[in-house]
Design a protein that fits this description.
Distance between the termini: 81 Å
Oligomer: single chain
Length: 579
């Protein structure tokens, strides 16, 4: 009983103390009790690109002395600020008001004079109000945080390109390093502050994350029906032992499937059948697999959902499914036709040596092994995929994020097929890929906050000299050649804010042509080497496990020339047709 009374008294004392603190805090914010001059000031703090600077601190001074009763004033995520500053009564009419702005990675602004306008209205306490508006542009500086963010980004690139560690771990290490430095050294030395936790959370594009998860669920349910393997078998049946027709058919099927789903999943599902067909024909599986993945990457380039770089570009630039199909579909179709012709000629000698004597027996065997295993689920999957694609087409008119379309289709499919959600989340969601994207967004945000992206944009602006055609070719070929050396996903993430800036300042770029150049360069350039795109690595890995390794040199020798040729076609397309 005594303990209960003590507990009640303690709670009452704590409550009373909290109320007193709240009253004191409110009184401190409401300013002095006697009449005062009150400055109401607002504005926007931007960088030299006109982009709002979040978290910049503003301090106000009167005649060289910091204002009393000043709240802490920081800019919002758009760079905007509003402040209510109290000064002694009758001091603003003749005094000089100045503001000082500070933010890590930016040059500290000297005190800027504020031009005030007196508002004739007064409140009941005799306070006089003055109004002011002040916009300020901050200059970037090369702070210690800049160099740490730059080295971290390069380190992530190297780890991914050389495959020293898994790309997800590379991005995880980079994001962890940036945040750790920000909250250790950055706590004591502001110049080491790279990124706050809130900034990191804001940098994660949830539209991309939910779109990936939704499509992974749809594909995960769909692949259990056996439809992908059935398509490969049908390709063989259609070719009737003619390897030239077979190779072309497999390439076309891979391209179409990749445009509607994604190229990595497409290759995962058709590679086993392709290898079996190649072994039956007594040709090396490489002669079918490399053309197949090449076509898969081209098909994925044509739509919003076909390749991860497009998903990122579409979300960042607010481009619709129809936008991608209209602007990239025609040139991708041309590149696909050229690719089919090239590989038929390149591997023609091997195809002519194929042994296709027992075609009917092979067709019957493939028919037994690779058939539709669940027609009911296939029907529901086709309906769900159709609804999803319809929403993709309409999402621009509905002002709806693409991820909502994918989530809607995935949720309906899970409901009508009674699929075990726990099993689906465990088996079908590539969590390593999801984490990779999340951590990569944080690493890129660190580079952007400290000014690395700013300087890259300034460099490209200088190289283009304001010419739209020159900017298009720089981005297209820069993206293609870089994506052939490193994974195209981190490169695309780095280039998003750069292309956004160039789109605003280069005359004629507001139609989005630079975004299409980035998409074509990043996706088609990934065809150049084995490490250029995720689908390439998946293909090489599965082929090796099946006993048919594909060396880096073998892949590059076959795929790099047609990659250069297709990117050259894109250059000609932009010059002759435009966006």
């Amino acid at each position: 009983m005594v303990m209960r009374k003590v507990l009640i008294v303690s709670c009452l004392i704590s409550l009373l103390f909290s109320m007193v603190c709240d009253l004191c805090y409110s009184a401190s914010l409401s300013g002095p009790s006697k009449p005062a001059d009150i400055l109401l000031i607002s504005g926007v703090i931007t960088d030299t690109h006109g982009k709002g600077v979040r978290g910049a601190k503003l301090s106000f001074f009167l005649n060289g002395h910091q204002a009393d009763h000043q709240e802490k004033v920081f800019t919002s995520h758009t760079g905007a600020y509003e402040a209510k500053i109290f000064f002694p009564h009758n001091s603003l009419s003749q005094g000089i008001v100045e503001v000082e702005v500070s933010k890590p990675a930016y040059a500290r602004q000297g005190r800027i004079k504020v031009m005030t306008v007196r508002d004739e209205k007064q409140d009941g306490q005799g306070n006089r109000y003055y109004l002011a508006h002040l916009d300020i542009a901050l200059e970037r500086i090369l702070s210690p945080g800049f160099w740490i963010a730059t080295v971290t980004l390069l380190l992530v690139y190297v780890l991914i390109a050389l495959e020293i560690v898994h790309r997800t771990l590379a991005a995880f290490l980079g994001a962890s390093l940036i945040l750790a430095v920000s909250y250790t050294a950055g706590t004591f030395y502001p110049s080491f502050r790279i990124l706050t936790f809130d900034d990191a959370a804001r940098a994660i594009d949830m539209n991309v994350i939910f779109l990936l998860i939704g499509m992974m669920i749809i594909v995960g349910v769909l692949k259990r029906t056996g439809v992908f393997q059935w398509l490969a078998y049908k390709s063989y049946e259609l070719a009737r032992g003619n390897v030239f027709i077979l190779a072309a058919t497999l390439m076309l099927a891979a391209a179409v499937a990749s445009s509607l789903l994604d190229n990595v999943t497409t290759m995962l599902l058709v590679i086993p059948v392709t290898i079996e067909i190649a072994v039956t024909l007594e040709i090396h599986p490489t002669t079918l697999l490399i053309p197949e993945v090449f076509a898969s990457n081209i098909g994925g380039t044509a739509t919003l959902i076909g390749d991860p770089p497009n998903i990122m570009i579409g979300s960042y630039a607010n481009l619709s499914f129809v936008d991608f199909l209209v602007h990239l579909g025609p040139i991708c179709l041309i590149c696909l036709v050229v690719g089919v012709g090239y590989f038929v000629l390149w591997y023609g000698k091997s195809y002519r040596k194929a042994q296709a004597g027992k075609v009917e027996e092979t067709i019957e065997r493939l028919k037994r092994e690779y058939r539709i295993t669940d027609k009911r689920t296939l029907v529901f999957s086709a309906i769900a995929l159709g609804i999803t694609l319809l929403l993709f087409v309409l999402h621009g008119q509905l002002d709806m994020e693409p991820s909502i379309a994918a989530m809607t289709g995935a949720a309906l499919l899970l409901l009508v097929t009674r699929t075990d959600i726990s099993e689906t989340l465990e088996r079908d969601i590539e969590w390593a890929t999801i984490i990779f994207f999340i951590m990569l967004f944080v690493v890129i945000a660190g580079a952007e906050q400290t000014g690395l992206i700013h300087h890259i944009a300034e460099g490209l602006k200088y190289l283009s000299q304001g010419s739209l055609n020159r900017a298009v070719l720089i981005i297209l070929w820069g993206a293609a050649l870089t994506s052939a050396v490193i994974d195209n996903i981190p490169f695309t993430a780095t280039m998003l804010p750069v292309v956004a800036y160039l789109t605003e300042i280069i005359p004629g770029a507001d139609g989005g042509i630079l975004w299409w150049a980035l998409a074509l360069g990043a996706c088609l350039g990934g065809n150049g080497t084995m490490i250029g795109a995720s689908a390439n690595l998946v293909t090489a890995g599965m082929a090796e496990r099946a006993g048919y390794p594909i060396s880096f040199r073998t892949y590059a020798k076959a795929a790099f020339p047609p990659m250069v040729f297709t990117v050259g076609l894109c250059s000609l397309w932009f010059i002759l047709v435009g966006s």
